[in-house]
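Researcher: I've been going back and forth with a colleague about how Aminotransferase class I/classII large domain-containing protein might be arranged in three dimensions. Neither of us has a model we trust, so I'd like an independent prediction. The organism is Pinctada imbricata, in case that matters for your notes. Sequence below.
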Amino acid sequence: FEEDFYESFEDTPMLAAISTYVGYLILVAVGHIREFLKGIGIGVVKCMAEPKLPGFVPLYQSWESFYTWYVYRRIRDCWNRPVGSVPGAEMDIVDRETKDHGWNFRQTKVVNFGSYNYLGFSSNVGPCADAVAETVREYGVGTSTSRQELGYLDLHKELDTLVAEYLGVEAAITIPMGFATNSMNMPSLVGKGCLILSDELNHASLILGCRLSGASIRTFKHNCMKDLEKKLRQAIVELQPRNT
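Model: Here is an independent structure prediction for Aminotransferase class I/classII large domain-containing protein. You can compare it with whatever you and your colleague have in mind.
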């Protein structure tokens, strides 16, 4: 396994670590100076401070507000880019460009390549939104029950039929989400007395499905066929049933 798989992490350079801590201390020192000047009426106050009312416990700790105003505000442009619209094919984000040291950001439009919005259902305008509105008017917002009862509509049957025809099989069952596909259907395929050989880096849905099934679980090294064969041979030696 060690010959086929290698993983390493780069150590933080000493200069980068020292400069980071020094920069953090400078921001804290400058923040205290600005707080002092604000207290004596010098400087522009751009933040909303919590009023000090007698008899009321403050909602925020003083350090929490201080850190947000004077430390986090100056470095949040490194990763914080809030979405300002629906997460469609294109979306508006608050860009990292600012002219007042992080108090305000300008809004810009970007192309969305990192979303689960495969079919465009998150957009509030367009053909998908119109089709959803028409379907809701005809069928309602949900079935409120499982397929075994009254939750199987003609739309579901039509979709299952189309999927089966596309795959060239006799029948198919469509499930609305990937997590439920793995976690809820694996227990119906395997159970107690069965053996599951699972990749150590499998998704949480697969891990949950394995546990819910009650089957014996053996994990093997990620994408390592040699370790998989070893675990399979070991399971056979330990008299695992033949229906694995």
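Researcher: What would you highlight for our discussion?
Model: I'd start with this: The mean pLDDT is 83. After that, consider the following. Strands lie at 90-94, 107-111, 195-199, 216-220.
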